[in-house]
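Researcher: Structure prediction, please.
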Amino acid sequence: MHLTFKTGDAQGVELTVEITQLVIAGWVGRDKEAVLHHIRELEALGVPPPGAVPLFYRVATNQLSQYQQLEVVGEETSGEAEPFIFFHRGEFWVSLISDHTDRHLETFSVALSKQACIKPVASQAWRMSELEDHWDELILRSWIKEQGEWVSYQQGSLASLLTPMDLVARYLAGQPVKEGFAMSCGTLSAIGGIRPSSEFRMALHDPVTGRTLEHQYLTGLLPVVA
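Model: Predicted structure follows.
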């Protein structure tokens, strides 16, 4: 899968990146008690608990998309804003992804629910080397549209999540990172609870540099023929 990004530096370089492996990291909170509390909340909704914390899901790279109009099956899908990292030409880059998930399928299989939906990705990227010294200060936000109005859905700093380099180290377990490796690095709790929405907007803001990564998309329903 090829994705194109504009970099946030002064040169405004355009990257064409071939993503060869996509991993979605789940249950990545630094506070273990808060993670366990969230697991119990989801269990009450019928979502099976993870076998490990954090847990890593492999998803087909062809599920990545930078389009703003997408299609899904069923009315019970929703997005989750997450930092997105990829390894390109010897260094890690940072962008923004929505782990769009089928909430009905999630009650049967979390892995299947993630594989079933396209993963929207922003079209801008920053060098990880420019962010590592103040990673925890980055602010992740998302909004959903309800009754015609944008409503705040997620908001918080990345200080509550394990860092991308920690997640990569855990996943690779000593193996070298390869060109085209990509990871979705976990998300924040939903304000008011997880719920379906066909319009989703997300942003990752760097208060140190004043830069913001943004992406917005709309999902349409595919017809289901009995």
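Model: The chain has one domain: 2-221.
Researcher: Thanks, that helps.
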